[in-house]
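can u do me a favor
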């Protein structure tokens, strides 16, 4: 098998090197970014990772029955299992080595590779921890364009020099991402703005990078038939052209601002269209701290629980009611602040390049599924999981969706909080069931992939704030589901009596949720009073 890997790698290398020369020759002079060096780097990394897995895990095939038994014994902490520990340590080391090699490849090839690496790094509960923890650094290691390149892009797209357009323009970017970087500037009329400028080589590289990834994923599938990662390439093919069009990003920003205007805590920076193009986006400058920065919130007296509740409401509305979902809520894209004018707490939503538009059928099935999960209707959980493409893997699907164990799903995800043991179990299972997870990700509708990513990013924020989903947050989700399903029923009936009936049913269901929430609060207050009384009894005040 190892010889087969080397043979396949050599064939792939020759083919890709030839195609690289054909694609890039005579057009670009920097061979480190384009041509045979760039392609060869990706081929070599893929071959080394594949060879490492094949040779290191020869005695325990990944995903085999023996592998799962060994992993289970290790997790249970059985004594005297030296051989188990040795074999599992070898596996974890292969994961870690491979993740580091992949990270180095992304940093070297930049652009699309960093974007895809960031996507993988966000899948905390779907991929082994060695991969997600290693690839997370890509959010802070994105490349920076030089000021010469920034001036060139602005000159080409806006037809003027920077000093003609701005009174001042900070050379040091506020932040750099895989596809662009943002600079603070002041217009001649005194307005402070944020200027998002695309890296100049990304447009030319993206389509060729995706083609290269597609070939490499197909090559790896020949060696490891159980690993199906074509979904990753398909997502990049679909989403990258949209993310590279900053006019599309501006339209998304205005659409979501209008859609969620009833949330007074949400701030979406205004777009200045007169100075925006496909590669340059000018918007209102809004300052704030990252949503996972607890120290910033403490200094500014911002309640982390309030922020967590607001995020939950905002995303429940996007997913269940509107079907228009911001799919990149990593901490750099979600800021918090106190509004300078009113002192009210605000969430600032940035980077609107990546949105998922949910079909009505998908959105309604997803509403039904979450309603079933919240109210522990396991028959409906199975039904709607299978309608969303999970098939017989629906238990794994619901665990991936909720980041809870199957036992917790059966007992009710709103009944018990997430424990450290359960969280660790979920992360370990991401490694145990990677072949099944990759197969499942190929089965579900493409819309679900970005929902998974969004869910994991939001859970990462909750974990950083120490506010993992509570019963109250699930009730807020349930409210949105009830409203969405009632609105759909009303839209499809012309009978006044039927519409009235639906409205009464909606009001009654919402009243039930409000009553349930009130009961939970009363229980919480009662428990707090009991704890206080116990403390007073144990530690009486001195007379």
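np, heres the sequence
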């Amino acid at each position: 098998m190892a010889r087969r890997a080397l043979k396949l790698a050599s064939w792939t290398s020759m083919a890709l090197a030839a195609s690289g020369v054909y694609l890039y020759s005579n057009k670009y002079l920097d061979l480190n970014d384009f041509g045979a060096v760039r392609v060869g780097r990706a081929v070599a990394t893929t071959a080394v990772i594949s060879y490492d897995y094949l040779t290191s895990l020869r005695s325990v095939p990944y995903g085999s029955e023996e592998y799962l038994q060994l992993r289970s014994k290790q997790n249970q902490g059985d004594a005297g299992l030296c051989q188990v520990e040795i074999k599992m340590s070898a596996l974890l080391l292969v994961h870690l080595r491979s993740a580091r090699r992949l990270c180095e490849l992304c940093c070297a090839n930049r652009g699309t590779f960093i974007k895809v690496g960031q996507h993988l790094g966000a899948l905390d509960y779907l991929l082994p921890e060695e991969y997600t923890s290693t690839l997370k650094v890509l959010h802070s290691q994105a490349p920076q364009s030089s000021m010469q390149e920034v001036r060139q892009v602005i000159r080409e797209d806006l037809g003027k020099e920077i000093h003609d357009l701005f009174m001042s323009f900070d050379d040091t970017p506020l932040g750099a991402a895989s596809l662009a970087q943002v600079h603070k500037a002041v217009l001649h009329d005194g307005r402070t703005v944020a200027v998002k400028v695309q890296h100049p080589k990304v447009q030319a590289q993206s389509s060729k990078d995706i083609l290269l990834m597609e070939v490499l994923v197909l090559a790896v599938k020949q060696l490891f038939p159980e690993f199906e990662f074509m979904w990753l390439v398909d997502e990049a093919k679909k989403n990258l052209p949209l993310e590279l069009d900053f006019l599309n990003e501006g339209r998304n920003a205005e659409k979501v601002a209008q859609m969620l205007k009833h949330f007074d805590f949400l701030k979406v920076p205004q777009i200045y269209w007169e100075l925006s193009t496909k590669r340059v986006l000018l918007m209102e400058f809004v300052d704030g701290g990252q949503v996972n920065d607890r120290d910033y919130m403490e200094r500014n007296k911002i309640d982390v629980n309030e922020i967590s509740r607001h995020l939950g409401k905002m995303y429940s509305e996007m997913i269940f009611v509107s079907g228009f979902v911001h799919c990149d809520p990593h901490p750099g894209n979600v800021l918090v602040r106190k509004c300078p004018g009113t002192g009210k707490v605000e969430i600032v939503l940035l980077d609107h390049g990546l949105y998922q538009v949910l079909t009505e059928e998908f959105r309604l099935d997803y509403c039904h599924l979450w309603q079933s999960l919240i109210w522990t209707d396991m028959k409906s959980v199975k039904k709607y999981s299978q309608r969303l493409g999970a098939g017989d893997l629906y238990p794994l699907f619901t665990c991936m969706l909720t980041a809870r164990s199957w036992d917790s799903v059966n007992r009710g995800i709103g009944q018990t909080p997430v424990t450290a043991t359960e969280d660790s179990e979920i992360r370990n299972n991401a490694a145990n069931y990677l072949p099944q997870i990759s197969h499942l990700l190929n089965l579900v509708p493409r819309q679900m992939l970005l929902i998974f990513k969004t869910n994991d990013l939001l859970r990462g924020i909750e974990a950083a704030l120490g506010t993992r989903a509570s019963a109250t947050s699930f009730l807020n989700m349930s409210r949105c589901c009830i409203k969405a399903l009632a609105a759909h029923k009303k839209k499809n009936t012309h009978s006044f009596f039927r519409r009235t009936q639906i409205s009464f049913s909606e009001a009654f269901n919402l009243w039930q949720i409000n009553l349930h929430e009130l009961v939970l609060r009363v229980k919480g207050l009662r428990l707090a009073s009991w704890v206080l009384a116990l403390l007073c009894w144990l530690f009486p005040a001195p007379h």
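The chain has 22 helices and eleven strands. hope that helps!!
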